[in-house]
Amino acid sequence: MIRLTVNGQSHDVEVPTYRTLLDCLRYDLGLTGSKEGCSVGVCGACTVLLDGKMISSCIALAVFADGREVTTVEGLAEDERLHPVQQAFMDAGGFQCGICTPGQVVAAKALLDAIPNPSDTEIREWMLGNLCRCTGYYKIVESIRAAAQPSRA
Amino acid sequence: MAHRIVGQPIGRLDGAEKVSGAALYSADVTLPGLVWGKALRSPLPHARILRLDTSRARALPGVLAVLTARDLPDILVGRRMFDMPLLARDRVRFIGERVAVVAALDPDLAEEALALIEVEYEDLPAVFDPIEALEPGAPLVHENPGAYEGAPPERPHANVQSVLRFKLGDVEAGFREADHIFEHTFRTQLAHHGYLEPHAGVVAIDEDDRVQVWASNKMPFRLKELLSHALALPPARIRVNLTPIGGDFGGKGSLMDLPLAYHLARVTRRPVKMVMSYTEELMAGNPRHPSVITLRTGVTNDGGLVARHVTALFNSGAYAAFKPAPSVNLGGSSMGAGVYRIPHLLIEGFCVYTNNIPCGHARSPGEPQMVFAEESHMDMIAKALSLDPAEFRRRNLLRDGDVLPNGHHLEHVRAKETLEAALKASEWSKPKPPWIGRGVAMTHRHIGVGFTNAHVRLETKGTVTLTIGLPDTGTGAHMVLRQVVAEVLGLSIEEVQIELATTDTFETDSGVGGSRVTHTGGRAAYHAAEKLKEQIQAEAAKLGTPDASFATIAQAAAREGRTLEASHFYDAKAHGAVTSFTAQVAEVAVDPTTGQVTVRRFTTAHDVGTIINPIGHQGQIEGGLIQGLGFALMEELKTDEGRISTLSLGDFKLPTIRDIPPLTTVILEDPVGPGPFRAKAIGEGSISAVAPAIANAVADACGIRILDLPITAEKVYFALKAREQRS
Amino acid sequence: MNAFDYRAPRTLDEALASLQEYGDDARVIAGGTALVTMMRQRLVQPRCVVSLRDVEGLGRIEARNGAVRLGALVTHREAETSPLLQERLPVLAETFRRVGTIRIRNMATVGGALAHADPNQDPPVTLIALDASVEIQRAGGRRELPIAAFFRDYYEPALEPGELVTAVTVPLLPPASGASFIKFLPRTADDYATVAVAVTVTLEPDGKRCREARIALGSVATTPLRGRAAEALLAGARLDESLVKSVGEAAKGEVDPLDDHRGSAAYKREMSAVMVGRALTQAWARARGAAREAE
After folding, report:
1. What is the pLDDT of residues C201-218, one digit of tens each?
2. How is B63-109 classified by DSSP, letter by letter?
3. Are the C-beta atoms of B110 and B41 separated by less than 8 Å?
4. Which of residues 184 through 203 in chain C touch B, CB cutoff 8 A?
5. Alpha carbon distance B322, B251 (integer Å)
6. Where are the domains of chain C?
7. B33 in contact with chain A, both atoms CB, cutoff 8 A
8. What is the CATH class of C177-294?
9. For the segment B709-720, what is each residue's pLDDT rounded down to a tens digit?
10. C5-51 adopts what CATH topology?
């Protein structure tokens, strides 16, 4: 039995030891926003925040998150209002098929929390581990720029 | 001509579900009692199955079913040619072929069960190289492929799946007219599409004994037909429910694991979910065909193309089942003629059986392979003739009235304008320091044809609902369709909503792909909206209030028990007379001490029709281009004797956000397309010329000509070294 | 993954006791990026996983007797962003920064990376050039091992059953020193190195001759290694282009690479020479700068 706080809500979940954090979120808690892509921690589709830090939930054991705080894409919006990063991705075409998008917006939120006004170099360095196959990344950079400084877009 | 909504850079209003994680893709679908299916795959490229013992797997607690070929009807599946068993019956033909399948309470238990299945194999002689596969006496992958349903008749060798030819004039006569003849051979690599959502599907048999399917498949109506065939069930028993798809790029049109999920559902009487791991995708996910392409071209002294003979061998792997074209071949071979007028032409494309991973369609099927070869070949000829590569192309570009190798006559040809635009924007003639190079390459891409049903309904609140059976693969097509309907009806974009059909809603739809959706989906939506507009105007006239709001009109009709709605089935029968040209220039730096190639900047020029959504349009250009970059520089499924060693994204590398070059896009918009408001297509226009533009730039930078993809630092380094040692 | 027992000890002694109890059937997990990936691929199937997550006292970065000591549970990201490390051993902070992506670095630990002993990793290369030593503990004992002796073979660290890496101690460089780490990855920005090189150079006080140099290479053998023959050419020497070239060639002779997805053995050999040359030139320039500052 583990206790996870996910998006501010506490959950007691019975999980086998071999359950990954990603599978726990998706199947035990029904939070299917985080996705399984490469299963080796490379593509970033499974990105969540663990105590505020970006991790690959597909290669983290659920038990590792026992007693800790997890933030998933479902936790970004506040009271029905999208987080500025989410809105920026919609406005600027920062997503297409959307499968990498939960990971992208979680990572981008963590970036803007750490660096409120990142340079393009800082954006690219931070987002290196979030692959996208549809957009070619140009509009992801634009979206994050716009979210950081709405007037800069 | 300016429109009100069409042409506006409207963001992805349909994106709230995606950015919030609420959108349910196939792997997210869950049903009460759902169990997990997993497939056991062959470790050998060609072998007889001597013994298959599933008893230990069956005994594992939490395992509900284990099936082998013996438990299934002897039906072969495919998309056009039906040569693949659901589970290997007594013989496996590639590493990764499915041998057994299990259903268990969770995916880890399913994997555990697979490890308990015992299989004894006896090796059979295997063949991996397409040239060797065509030699007399080569091991046969299939003894009698001509007997398979859907097999094309021509078969010069039992290891040939299909042959596709394009012919103009008399190529031998043409060569006799030439002053010089050049011949070069190129190779391209095995490469997966790289979509980040592995194939996933859920199959459930409901209380009415209907088969409910949720699948990452971009042509749900065709899927229904194929399932009907594979499961030997009448089509009416099957319903495909559309889900958003996490990237397709040509790779998600086959049955994949769905028939197996059905049989597990049938036997366990539970809904079954099967999700491929990324390793399974890289091992068995119908990737892009590798190629060996030889071009032989005859030119006159002043650089006029007179004759060309192209032979392409596509290493198609163990089954033809994944190719959807009636030819069971790759139409992209027609790009062997490039964007040029060549009076005498013969292109022969062979899809060859080998004991490798079966390949399928990938973005612009056959074109990135053929265009790499063809546009590199053009530069090599230009060099031999001491002609500027741009000038050599200029002298031979297609013009209005010319015929393409596939018989299409062209109008509104802007090849020259597109080339000039790319050259200008890239500063083609600007002097460069040593080890910096520029390369140009061109291609063209048709507007696809197909058929789509669309239905529009006026709601009592005055909005319009568009029902469409085209799944969302990410391209932004649904926004395009909404804009089309909004434009016709004079509504705002928010007043038009999409309702996704199921395969119960409409008779048919050719689905997503082939650069056809803006055309066929757009025209279906356009004409349905036009019909609705007429009805609305008629109602308003009846009411005597021509300026009545849509809501008023709808409510008036509702009071009489009527709904204003209209349908249209659009079937684009033949390719029109237009195509879309692309010209690209790569500027690269080569590091002489390591061979590393860096793309300093990239220019892409596109001859397009009316742009309906500029943001989505540009997104397609950028996405395709970076896929082309990956294909040129880093993507490679390394394979040796049928064994793929790059089995994760840690080894099969896709471009990252730090790999993208500064990009300049030039758009030449000309409202001459067959799509709504004279739109053309854009989804597959930017990928094919990237690799040759880069290869040509590398040759310009350092004189090294790389003939096989990907262009790696190592290849350039050793080529530079070899040249140094020769001098 | 297979089913396994999970232990989450709160003290090092508890952890070591669990390891002794389970012997070969147990695997230690720190950040888990390597272990969980291997378990998901069924490459390892331990009966017990002992997590160090809650073990106190292994997560510190501290200055100590002319060295920096990194506890085994310090994450790559903590090392990369540590003001202490950035100030005292910037080449090491920079090396940690080059590993994978931020997500990996948020989880992967210093100790875990060493115990994994993957010859394609980056930090061991710089740690070898800095002549670090590894602190190892087991139930009832501890020992220190110079890092160059820590890597036995491909994925085989010099750890006996029941032993844990508990810290790495990295001596500071003497005055008039410079260091450089180069990760050569020509394919894409997120990859293992084709070749990785770390060089430290300490000059005589006059800033002209080399007093001591250390060269380490990674991704070029079944373990990271010291290029001692290459180093020997630098003792007492003044740097010029031909020496840089000779040192590179000597390093090339010491490596024993295998073909892998980042390059053929032949290419890795060539790039060993090139990258040693580049790292040496950069380290030497930094040493000259340090020598001038000290004047």
Report:
1. 999 988 899 999 999 999
2. EEEEEEGGGS---EE-SSS--EESS-SSEE-STT-EEEEEEESSHHH
3. no
4. 184, 186-191, 194
5. 9
6. 5-51, 61-170, 177-294
7. no
8. alpha beta
9. 999 999 999 999
10. 3.30.43
